[in-house]
Amino acid sequence: MAIIDNHIIKAIKVLFNVKLAKDTYMLEGMFLSNTYEKPNPFSFFMVWVPRVDEIPLSIADFDEGKIRFLYKIKGEGTKALSDHKGSIIGVRGPFGKGIKIKPAIGSRWLVIAGGIGIAPIPYLVKTWKIYEVQFDILWGVKTVEEIFDIKTFFPYMERSRIIITTEDCHYKNGYCGLVTDALKHMNAKDYDGIIAVGPNNMLKTVCLDLYEMNPYISLETIVKCGIGICGSCYIKSSDKLLCIDGPVFRCSEVIEYLRSNNLNS
């Protein structure tokens, strides 16, 4: 069996890279060798955009040597990545523990996703399909222009219930306001588990409002080396490194970090 070193850059060929909504893209790539490791949901890769930057991206799908990323243009690296079509890029990883728990058969989970925090959810749904988990997904975006039909691109999400909230209030079939405002209309105690992913200020609100339930959250922070050496992703007020121990934590593990005034988002 080949020994896989996730610290080494592996080449992938971009099969397609399409715009789904305002500043939001989906890239599918194929590994050019068979030395890759199957990731856990919420694990991430460091994506090398030649001559520009290396950026951390969550895994939206993974299957038989193919990988998909959902990403939003936020800076020079993601802008350059959006121009890659049919070319070769590099990846290192997967990094982080992700989420390794085995949910109860037929359990019901609430997902709270803010903006491009929706990116790792398709792979979670796919991975937990064998457990027949029922998902209610509360997805919040700033404007209606950021919405896309995620079930079209990830058909195995067909059974998931998706509730959309918009801050500009222009989406007629959803809630108006922040995703955490819409959360107040949900009975969190109806669910066997809760996981939230999105900006850290959103995660702070989720943790404070639902602290008794101690949800799982996927943190955002600066990641550079991905292997726990540089310390850029140290979670202050804890003994955790996001690239080694995360990005998924229980609220109780990182609540002091979220309560601090030094959030990265």
TrEMBL record:
Question: What cofactors are annotated for this protein?
Answer: [2Fe-2S] cluster; FAD
Q: Which residues bind FAD?
A: 77-78
Pfam families linked to this entry: DHODB_Fe-S_bind (PF10418)
List ligand-binding residues for [2Fe-2S] cluster. 225, 230, 233, 243
Instruction: Name the protein family.
Output: Belongs to the PyrK family.
> Can you name the source organism?
Ignisphaera aggregans
Q: Matching PANTHER family, A to Z?
A: DIHYDROOROTATE DEHYDROGENASE B (NAD(+)), ELECTRON TRANSFER SUBUNIT, DIHYDROOROTATE DEHYDROGENASE B (NAD(+)), ELECTRON TRANSFER SUBUNIT-RELATED
Single Gene Ontology BP annotation? pyrimidine nucleotide biosynthetic process
Its name, as the record gives it, is Dihydroorotate dehydrogenase electron transfer subunit iron-sulphur cluster binding domain-containing protein
Keyword Oxidoreductase on entry: no
List, alphabetically, the SUPFAM superfamilies matched.
Answer: Ferredoxin reductase-like, C-terminal NADP-linked domain, Riboflavin synthase domain-like
